[in-house]
Amino acid sequence: MTWRCVLAVAVAMPALPAVAAASDTTIATTARATPLAADAGRLLYSAWDGSAYRLTLLAGGGTSRTLPVAGQAQPFRADIGPGPDGHELAVYPRCESASTGCDLYAFDFTTGIERRLANADSPSDDEIAGAVWRGTLVFSRVYRSRHRGFIYQRPLAGGGRSRRVSALTALTLDLRGTRVPFSRSLEWSNEPWLAGSAGAPSRRLATVPGSGAAVDFLTDVNPTAYGSSIYWLLVSSGDDDYSEIHRFNRTRGRDERVPTRIPAVAGGFAYDAGVAYYAAPVQGTACPPDRDCTTTIHRVDGLTFEPAPPIRLR
């Protein structure tokens, strides 16, 4: 399973109602499906302009602006976090093709400067995801010869060796303090997991079953740490198309969900300070797997959660 499955989208959908009793508001529209990243009141997405994806910022006041970095053929799979000097940074891979020749870059929102994270670069393998928290960088590297990946930690600046955090392949990463939530790549699904930059063992947060013979495909999207919980999106596509906002409540040690489902296969999810964001096809749009469809980005406030039943595959 490749990272592209997190961008799977659905065919024609009914109107998207409010999630539970929360306030669900459309805040932006883009021509194709997009991943999302959020932190400190900033929301990042990839806007297709007809020739390339452009890294786009939606900040306070609801105004979008294109960031001063080169566009690319694939959507930006970014994470946002504070750097060592307090500047907010976006970390993302740039790839020569869909998922090979990948190196990590960082964009500083304060200086407006993009730079390659050369100290995390392998000349022969691919860094496919990264996240920063103050002076620490975590990243996911896939070894082409071994067809598997690992998660590493190293100082954001300077030399020294990288330390292995987990011997699992991560499609997306987040970092908050010492918590490293990630989407683990499996053969027929992806699952939310949690590792620790301080050396804690990796643990599964929810079992997302998968089978090549099933009528539906289940996956997670972008596990994100905030407060005492890990927030993530469960997506089902096939005969039963929906998305469902989840959180792993670390205080109670259980998976929880928003009671009302989103009746669409969302391609992006982010969470920041009590607010969830998701990106999904607009009403009535035929949306093929190549992501060539109009997508709306939603902000959801006032979320309420209930204990989640075991996730089952049909």
What letter string, H or E per element, gives the SSE order? EEEEEEEEEEEEEEEEEEEEEEEEE
Oligomer status: single chain
CATH topology grouping: Neuraminidase
- Just give the CATH class: Mainly Beta
Q: Major β-sheet, in short?
A: 5 strands, antiparallel
> Per the principal axes of the C-alpha atoms, what is the gross shape?
globular
Summed over residues and divided by their number, the pLDDT gives a mean of 90
Radius of gyration: 18 Å
**How many discrete domains?**
1
Number of strands: 25
* CATH homology superfamily name: TolB, C-terminal domain
CATH architecture: 6 Propeller
Contiguous low-pLDDT stretches (5 residues minimum) are 1-20
Beta percentage is: over 45%
Distance between the termini: 19 Å
Could you estimate the helical fraction of the residues in percent?
A: under 10%
- Sheet/helix structural class: mainly beta
Number of helices: 0
Q: Name the strands of the widest sheet in spatial order.
A: 18-19-20-21-25
Give structural notes:
This protein has 314 residues and is mainly beta. The protein has a single domain (8-307), classed as Neuraminidase, CATH 2.120.10.30. The protein has strands at residues 23-30, 36-39, 42-48, 53-58, 64-66, 79-82, 88-94, 103-108, 113-116, 126-133, 136-143, 148-155, 163-166, 170-173, 179-185, 190-196, 203-204, 216-226, 229-238, 242-249, 254-257, 268-272, 275-281, 295-301, 306-307. The strands form 6 sheets. A 5-stranded antiparallel sheet has the order 18-19-20-21-25, with no helix packed on it. It has a 4-stranded antiparallel sheet with strand order 1-24-23-22, with no helix packed on it. A 4-stranded antiparallel sheet has the order 2-3-4-5, with no helix packed on it. A hairpin with a 4-residue loop joins β3 and β4. The relative contact order is 0.20. Residues 1-20 have low confidence and may be disordered.
